[in-house]
């Protein structure tokens, strides 16, 4: 068979398929435009992210590279396959459907892409309409960074802390395992030396956050679990905003100590830890939170602050008052934040919640 015959067979087959699928052409065009519009909105979002977080982005951020092209092509192929399937379903398999399968499939694709476009347009956007959409949609900013911007969607809150390395040893919420000399030591002057704005009840789970590096723009700390004998075991590191409670008395004393909104660590002291529902911590890159019903540890009744959570992040930019967990292996940052958070929740806080035990955190 020569080349001319092959060419004739190819164009004949192509013409036959095109004729058979001609009714789907308007829907294919509409859905293609919707997918490409979504790609454009995602690209514009990446440009906004690069502008808003220049220190956390790289030179590739905001570029439409081969990876993005591959994802776009795959999305188009999936959309085309869905439309063709819907067309053949109604034309050649069953005509008894109470709806037009092709129109329903095309409508679903356009709605899906439209929703994604709204998410892209509202993410990393300070406009009033965007902030309204952020309440009900996913903020995709963190998808464009290799970090967790966990402050997104939270109410105005304080700050968090981080420092150290991966030196933790297993320590269950029953405090039953042996302590190693490297990770555990007696707390100076025992628990009686802790600030007692709140007095922990007997049998409670006790966390202890020791701030070890008070920098100009951030604060590094170590997070421990404390047993009834006053011994502590390292869990992870923390990073918070700047400490402005210089005299460590649990409040801001004028004129030198003044809270600056979203740039201040919470005061020293002992606080009760409750639970706050946070739908944003079960979507996007942080799917692990689904294991905890999207609830987050909530540091309650902090003077001058509200919405203080213990959550993931990478630097003080992720804090805005909350406590960010991770491992301080880079200057002014934490890494493996989701790993640290999952360890804290799985080994200590979530078992305590299920057992009905109260949780307290002391910051020193």
Describe this entry's structure for a reader.
This protein has helices spanning about 5-20, 25-50, 65-95, 100-120, 130-135, 335-355; strands at about 185, 205-215, 220-225, 230-240, 270-275, 295-300, 310, 325-330, 335, 360-364. With about 375 residues, the chain is an alpha+beta fold. It folds into 2 domains: about 5-145, no CATH class; about 185-364, no CATH class. An 8-stranded mixed barrel has the order 2-3-4-8-7-6-5-10. β2 (about 205-215) and β3 form a beta hairpin. α2 (about 25-50) runs antiparallel to α3, α2 (about 25-50) runs parallel beside α4 (about 100-120) and α4 crosses α5. The N and C termini lie far apart (about 85 Å).
């Amino acid at each position: 068979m020569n080349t001319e015959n092959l060419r004739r067979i190819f164009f004949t087959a192509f013409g036959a398929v095109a004729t058979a699928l001609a009714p789907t052409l308007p829907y294919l065009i509409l859905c293609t435009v919707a997918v490409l519009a979504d790609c454009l909105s995602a690209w514009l979002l990446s440009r906004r992210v690069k502008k808003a977080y220049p220190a956390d982005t790289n030179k590739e951020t905001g570029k439409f590279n081969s990876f993005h092209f591959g994802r776009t092509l795959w999305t188009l192929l999936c959309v085309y396959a869905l439309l063709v399937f819907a067309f053949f379903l109604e034309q050649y398999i069953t005509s008894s459907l109470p709806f037009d399968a092709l129109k329903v499939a095309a409508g679903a694709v356009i709605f899906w892409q439209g929703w994604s476009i709204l998410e892209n347009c509202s993410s990393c956007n300070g406009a009033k309409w965007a902030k309204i959409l952020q309440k009900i949609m996913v903020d995709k900013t963190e998808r464009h960074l290799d970090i967790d911007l966990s402050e997104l969607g939270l109410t105005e809150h304080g700050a968090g802390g981080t420092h150290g390395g991966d030196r933790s040893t297993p320590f269950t919420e029953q405090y039953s395992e042996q302590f190693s000399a490297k990770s555990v030591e007696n707390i100076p002057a025992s628990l009686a030396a802790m600030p007692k704005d709140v007095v922990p009840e007997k049998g409670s789970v006790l966390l202890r956050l020791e701030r070890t590096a008070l920098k100009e723009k951030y604060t590094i700390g170590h997070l421990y679990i404390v047993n009834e004998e006053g011994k502590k075991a390292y869990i992870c590191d923390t990073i918070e905003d700047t400490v402005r409670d210089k005299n460590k008395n649990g409040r801001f004393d004028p004129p030198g100590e003044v809270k600056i909104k979203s740039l201040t660590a919470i005061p020293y002291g002992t606080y009760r830890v409750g639970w706050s529902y946070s739908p944003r911590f079960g979507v996007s890159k942080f799917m692990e939170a689904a294991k905890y019903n999207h609830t987050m540890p909530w540091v309650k009744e902090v003077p001058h602050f509200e919405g203080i959570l213990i959550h993931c992040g990478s630097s003080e930019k992720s804090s805005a008052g909350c406590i960010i967990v991770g491992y301080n292996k880079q200057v002014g940052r934490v890494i493996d934040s989701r790993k640290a958070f999952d360890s804290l929740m799985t080994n200590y806080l979530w078992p305590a919640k299920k057992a009905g035990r109260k949780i307290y955190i002391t910051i020193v």
